[in-house]
Amino acid sequence: MDTAPMAHLVAHPPDADRGDDTPHALVVRLQRADVSAMTLVYRQHHVAVRAFAQRLVGDIEAAEDLVQDVFIALPTAIARFRGDCALRTFLVSIAVNQAKNHVRAAARRRAALARLGREPEPASPDPQRDLERRQLADRLMLALDELPLEQRVAVVLGEIEERTSAEIATIVGAPEGTVRTRIFHAKRKLRDIMQAEKGGER
């Protein structure tokens, strides 16, 4: 296949993402629809993509579905890759674009579990502490469900994954100032939701 029309997309090899250096040649092979390159990219990055997906949607099943969608979309999406970020960062941006339905599905599942109650957990050396941790995590995830998707993505990337505003801007395709504004409003809403819930428990 003649790759000349796509040469500008890989003119600059992607930078390292947290120490993970993706070779220029791998991107070229992806753009040629090389199956072995797809397999290699999956092996190198699926764990990180799954970790982000689970933090974003808060549900293992929905996260697995999202990861699958990311790698299904990659052969088409790679044509947009211009080498101005790491390949892993690009994969996370695909996850963000694919996330809407998965976030909604996970939120519905959490709401149903909250209504029905959870199944008993395995015995623990400190069951009270484990219970408190689970309850806090559940409350935080339910609070995240109240955020608009753009704010949810920004706060997960910035506050949980500890990415810079520049990285987040690349992932979501928005100016850094917009990213910082989204994080600010998201944190304020989360704080208000958590405080209101805590007040309601008194």
Radius of gyration: 19 Å
Oligomer: single chain
Rough outline: globular
Structural class: mainly alpha
**Percent range for β-strand residues:** under 5%
The domain count comes to 2
- What is the CATH topology descriptor of the largest domain? Rna Polymerase Sigma Factor, Chain: A
What is the CATH class of the largest domain? Answer: Mainly Alpha
Number of alpha- plus pi-helical segments: 8
Beta-strand segment tally: 0
Average pLDDT:
80
CATH superfamily of the largest domain: RNA polymerase sigma factor, region 2, helix turn helix motif
CATH architecture type of the largest domain: Orthogonal Bundle
- One letter per element, helices H and strands E, the order comes to HHHHHHHH
Share of residues in helices: over 70%
The biggest sheet, with number of strands, parallel, antiparallel or mixed sense and barrel status, is: none
Distance between the termini: 67 Å
**Unreliable stretches covering 5 or more consecutive residues:** 1-22
